[in-house]
Design goal:
alpha+beta, Arc Repressor Mutant, subunit A, 9-stranded mixed β-sheet, 3-stranded antiparallel β-sheet, 16 helices, 39% helix, elongated, binds adenosine-5'-diphosphate, binds magnesium ion, binds zinc ion
Length: 499
């Protein structure tokens, strides 16, 4: 059915239709233990080593709510300007899937812990307000691994393996109200929103928020309506989109696909869709009606959650500075241009640059090393800049050696090599690799004499008053001393000798 749909180019689709989006973002909390039991939540542990009767749903096992998870849920709700429920309950969402051992997911239904919020995202200097419908608590499912097929999908596999370590890890699901922004902005607003949530979760310290590891996952709902109309069209729900770029691509693709169906006089099927990284397309998942009967009912084994107003206010006082405000503040403190700031944020280096400056480096130098030398190395190695084996404190130490005149920029590159290779602190690398600048007059003087002897014509010019020509001699001395000469002192010596 949908595989034969003609895709309408995005811009063309926007001449006839307006997109409406809804984003559901799942955030895995970084609590030490699971939502309703004491099992550990360590990522990447041996399969089925972090399980117990509660998270395996064995008969008679009784769950207990993780207070730290409730605390994180409230802080997330507050950071999203939500109202926090005085009293709310968990609910059972009943369905069968092998990765969910209880045959129901403990979630929240009509009584979410946080609701009616809003937040703002910025795209190309324009601010968009996103209304938040609710943020509710639930638990993650286990993971299935389909073996024997070529694609890793269930289709074609000979058997499946189940790992329940993730079953019961606390999740917060953040659901927006329908987002109605100008169609051409929709893909970037969706991307900016998910990016903004990630920043917010990191600032709150409640999650690793790693899309690549699934600790932050986005479902993209999208529908089209004819330009100038108000009734929403039928939506599709593209599940588990796992990068910012993919969020943007999924929106674009679904706009093109829906427009193709509508242009042909067809109707969009309300269904889940899978997103394909390879070509940015989506394919049909399962049909899903709004009247889906999950037989929700209040969870009888858990006490209601009734956070006192005092607790909520205490938690409000722990909220971090909102990420967008922090960026504005830092930009003005550092004297960065809009472009400097965009480059820094884009390189994922904001916190690294901030920590380097905090450790005593000037903003310009911190930016130079992280966006130059270190960004280049992270690109070459295909790792996140934050994953390079060097700390902001180490970068600050290298810069302080430069400021003290003990190394120059060129030698600093070798110090970076050494520190990144695990050879120790900047000081240790300088000592072990013999990288210190030579400013001892004895050694420098001999090298300057040699350079003068080798370049009599240049020396003659300087004698005749052409001081700019000293650069050529400094270069010659540097070459002799493998870049380790103190350039300022060399210059003084040249001028002394030739005046
Ligand atoms: P479900 O249980 O099907 O995932 P939710 O209410 O949790 O439904 O989430 C649906 C999301 O889609 C919300 O963000 C909502 O604002 C949005 N949404 C609802 N109707 C439409 C529509 N017609 N077009 C686009 N988005 C929609
Ligand atoms: Mg949902
Ligand atoms: Zn458990």
């Amino acid at each position: 059915m949908s595989t034969t749909t003609t895709l309408v180019p995005f811009e063309d689709a926007l001449t006839r239709y307006e997109p409406v989006m809804g984003l559901e973002v799942h955030v895995e909390l970084n609590t030490a233990t699971k939502m309703f039991c004491g099992c550990a939540t360590t990522f990447g542990a041996e399969p089925n080593t972090q399980v117990c009767p509660v998270c395996l749903g064995l008969p008679g096992a009784l769950p207990v709510v993780n207070e730290k998870a409730v605390e994180s849920a409230i802080r997330i709700g507050l950071a999203l300007n939500c109202e926090i429920a005085d009293w709310c309950r968990f609910a059972r969402k009943n369905y069968f899937y092998p990765d969910m051992p209880k045959n129901f997911q403990t979630s929240q239904y009509d009584e979410p812990i946080a609701y009616n919020g809003w937040t703002e995202v910025e795209v190309d200097g324009e601010v968009f307000r996103i209304e938040i419908e609710r943020a509710h608590m639930e638990e993650d499912t286990g993971k299935s691994l389909h073996v024997g097929g070529s694609t890793g999908r269930i289709h074609g596999a000979s058997h499946s393996l189940l790992d329940y370590n993730r079953a019961g890890i606390p999740l917060i699901e953040i659901v927006t109200k329908p987002i109605e922004v100008p169609g051409d902005k929709a893909p970037s607003v969706a991307r900016a929103y998910v990016n903004h949530l990630r920043d917010l979760m990191l600032a709150l310290g409640v999650s690793d928020a790693r899309m690549d590891q699934g600790s932050l996952r986005a479902d993209v709902n999208l529908s089209l309506r004819p330009v100038g109309t108000t009734t929403f069209g039928t939506r599709s729900e593209t599940k588990n989109v796992n990068s910012f770029r993919s969020v943007e691509r999924a929106v674009r693709y679904e706009v093109s696909r829906h427009a193709g169906i509508l242009d042909a006089g067809g109707s969009v099927v309300q269904e889940t869709r899978h997103f394909h990284e390879s070509d940015g397309s989506t394919s049909a998942g399962r049909e899903k009606s709004d009247a889906e009967d999950y037989r929700y009912f209040p969870e009888p084994d858990l006490a209601p959650v009734a956070p006192s107003r005092e607790w909520v206010e205490e938690l409000r006082a722990t909220l971090p500075e909102p990420p967008a405000e922090r960026r504005k503040r830092l930009q003005s403190e550092w004297g960065f241009s809009d472009l400097d700031m965009r480059d820094t944020v884009g390189a994922g280096a904001l916190d690294l640059v901030a920590a380097t400056i905090e450790a005593g480096t000037s903003p310009a130098a911190a930016k130079k090393w992280w966006l130059g030398e270190l960004a280049r190395r992270s690109n070459e190695q295909g790792v996140d800049i934050a994953e390079l084996p060097i700390t902001p404190q180490q970068v600050a130490q290298i810069q302080s050696l430069i400021d003290a005149g003990r190394i120059n920029d060129k030698l600093a590159r070798s110090v970076f090599d050494g520190v990144l290779a695990g050879e120790g602190s900047a000081e240790e690398v300088v000592a072990a690799r013999g990288l210190e600048v030579v400013s001892d007059d004895g050694a420098l003087s001999a090298a300057v004499d040699q350079a003068i002897a080798d370049n009599p014509d240049v020396a003659e010019k300087i004698r005749g008053g052409k001081v700019q020509a000293a650069g050529a001699l400094i270069g010659a001395v540097m070459k002799q001393m493998r870049g380790q000469a103190d350039a300022a002192r060399v210059r003084e010596l040249i001028l002394e000798k030739l005046s």
